[in-house]
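Q: Hi! First time doing this. I have a protein sequence and I read that you can turn it into a structure. Is that right? Here it is:
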Amino acid sequence: MTSGYYIVYSQLLDSFLKIKKFKREELDSIFKILDTKISDPSFTILDFYKFIAKESIVNYKSLIRTHGKSSVFDEAAYEGVTEAYPMLTADVACKHFNAVEEEEEASEVLQPYTLKDLISIQKKIESELVGQSEAVSATMDTFKLINSGFESYSSLFFIGPTGVGKTELGKLVAKHYLKDNSRLLKINCGEYSNQHEYAKLIGSPPGYIGYNEKGILSERAAESSRWVILFDEIEKASSKLHNLLLGLLDDGVIFDSHGVELNFKNSLFIFTSNVGIKDVVGKKLLGFNSSTVEYDQVRENISDSFKEEFSPEFINRIENVIFFNALNKKEVEKIIRLNLRKLPINPTKKLINYILDGGYSPEYGARNVKRFIKQNVTLKIADRILGGEDKKVFKATFPKGELEIS
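A: Yes, that's right. Below is the predicted 3D structure, encoded as structure tokens:
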């Protein structure tokens, strides 16, 4: 293991703590002393915990709170911790005694892509993601560094209006780069808005219900170190989750609630956000010649909002912040054609214009178009199929201006 510490949770401090790792010979010495002490009938479990604390299984003076402002605990904090924390320190010491000097598990052996391979992957992604060639290119630059051996993992922050392809790019990376759609782990950060909900990822802390159950990241790390982990709408997550992720962004590893190291050193971490956009974009400017604020006009303001929303420690660990473009009508028309390819219907110009007029929204992007197609086209085709019609391709007609499927 490369790190010199474990990260565990302290109920007393409601915080994550860094716990020093000891070499095997150091632990051997401590446990030899314990061997003599436990033979004494008067030696109680409380004595055991006190002994563990006294022998500095945890280096209390270097415990660091990883949420809020980092600070080294002083002597007073040391005195406060020793009484409530030794049970956890003993637990960590015992669980990992046999693993202290285990060599780090070998990373998955991966055959790197060539430049030709990466160019081919980029073309496939761009054919399925309309209007975001700059974002795709920046993402592929990351893979160039990984496949040339300069990096093994990386992190990207996607900023842009809703429905422009931020999450979709993550899906396409899993599909075309990892060659496996199931390698995308999407984490809806709206489900992590409360301080305690981080436990869904790494397991509940000691003393809480579900402590023996694995977290989401624990399960994925047991399968592979190679994922696209997408934290969707990261601004909705609590600051505790942001701070928990600092180690993941630093080293490509994270520790679960048992102190076990979870390896994601071959993964891509993606964060999506529309922070600062909904408060500005689409609003009316003041004045007689008032106009609606466009996304491209206020990118600098959005960048400022991004810096205000997230801590410098978090931002500093992101490899690349990528702005996604707003979609214009021409690009949305291409998206409509891509979606109609999945349906047994002729994509006539009239049908495309009908969808464009009813579904295009600068505020909601492609997501609104997909919803409109489902409700107004796909459902009508489904009615025909369920009614017994056996046709390979249906036709859209517009008698009296209303869509009918024939």
